[in-house]
Amino acid sequence: MLFSLLNRHPDILLATDSDEFSWLNEIIWREFYRHLLFHEQRLCKHQAFKEKYRTTVWHNDKEKFMAWCKGKTGYPLVDAAMLQLNQTGRMHNRLRMVVASFLTKHLLIDWRWGEKYFMQHLIDGDLASNNGGRQWAASTGCDAQPYFRIFNPIRQSERFDPNGEFIRKYIPELNSIPDKHIHFPHQYIANHQLSLYWEPIVDHKEARINALAFYK
């Protein structure tokens, strides 16, 4: 329907970097995931879209999962996003991708655990979009990101929250941390003998190597 509308009215085509395009793009993704759910009803039964991932044995560390849920992973952007979800029931789409990727790629925890937690807390929770988005991040879904694409939560933070405004809003303990250290403040905290923030539950470089081996 949306594509038909655009074909009939080419004058409404939008610049790809505009807010209007982003909004329309998200609607198209929503319709795509609903289309999948209708034609692949097994997705309602907690099954991975890609056959080769159906028997995956996830690590499913419950302590790390709870740290992710509570926003205590030691990665400020991930933690701020989860705290926002817990406090408001909302989360920006970029952050949904970051935290979902962290859960499945850094922690190697079943995407279905994240899917369930999101549906329990999102005020705009939608079965099709939630399932599709979690499987997209986990590389188990249709048209998903490839397994070797692993979001770096520090780089994502530097790119999308360069001054740490979002981080400080939900993690006020980090208010005194300079901007250049806000994205991963552990060395700064140690150098100044501060006790402000929890230690990271995984090392990014090591987690990335483990994830690549796990998916292969």
From TrEMBL:
Entry keyword Flavoprotein: yes
Ranges of residues in domain Cryptochrome/DNA photolyase FAD-binding: 23-215
Record keywords: Chromophore, FAD, Flavoprotein
InterPro entries in UniProt: Crypto/Photolyase_FAD-like_sf, Cryptochr/Photolyase_FAD-bd, Cryptochrome/DNA_photolyase_1, DNA_photolyase_1_CS_C
PROSITE patterns in the cross-refs: DNA_PHOTOLYASES_1_2
Gene3D superfamilies linked: 1.25.40.80, DNA Cyclobutane Dipyrimidine Photolyase, subunit A, domain 3
Coiled coil: none
Cofactor list: FAD
Signal peptide (from-to): none
Family, as annotated: Belongs to the DNA photolyase family. Belongs to the DNA photolyase class-1 family.
Protein name: Cryptochrome/DNA photolyase FAD-binding domain-containing protein
